[in-house]
Amino acid sequence: MRPRKPPTALDEDALYTYAVRLLGTQMRTVAELKRLLRRRAALGEAGQAALDAVIARLKEHRYLDDTGYALDYAKLRQENSSFGRRRVQQDLMRKGVQADVITKTLDTAYEGVGEEALARRHLARKRIAQPETDKDAARVARLLLRAGFSTSTIVRILKKWNVDEAALTAFESAGADEPSDS
Predict the structure, then answer these.
(1) Residue 49: half-sphere exposure toward Cβ, Cα within 13 Å
(2) What does pTM read for this prediction?
(3) pLDDT in tens, 18-27
């Protein structure tokens, strides 16, 4: 197998065209796009200046907007995947969205949304039935934790399903380190 040759460095106009093509395939954050463009930009200060100019031009033409991206992402994850606030927050942080933008976005996206109803919708979407054993209850609890729901919400759902009180106590004490989103 032949080694790959490194991609040729692009000038500002070619870098802009490449960025528009990348944004045409999927929405991206500023951090994601910078990471992808950095590979193709020239090395040194000239490359960094071209990269900054391309990012500024994309923002000016409204092709790049982290706030809009975060709001769309949060709404889609909430409506289609029924994910909780914490999961969406972690995903946005991983994508490089700034913390203050994430906070404002999640406040807007999850305003008036009941976490317990969202968790029940997530369980229905995954076709999860009422657990019959403590092992099944633990599996459901882990599923809901991965989906971004708070420990208190998970306990409320499991209590309504009449899960053994000892299993609930064990779960609550294990999840006591996590912040509650009640």
Answers:
(1) 3
(2) 0.82
(3) 999 999 999 9
User: Last residue of some domain: 75, 92, 109?
Assistant: 109
Looking at the chain, the whole-number percentage of residues with pLDDT higher than 90 is: 66
> What gap in Å lies between CA 48 and CA 52, rounded to an integer?
6
Structure tokens at 63: 């092709």
Chain mean position to CA 182: 20
Residues 122 and 158 in one domain: yes
Which residue range forms the structural domain that includes residue 54? 12-60
CB–CB of 68/93 below 8 Å? no
What pairs with residue 41 in β-bridges? 10
Domain presence at residue 72: yes
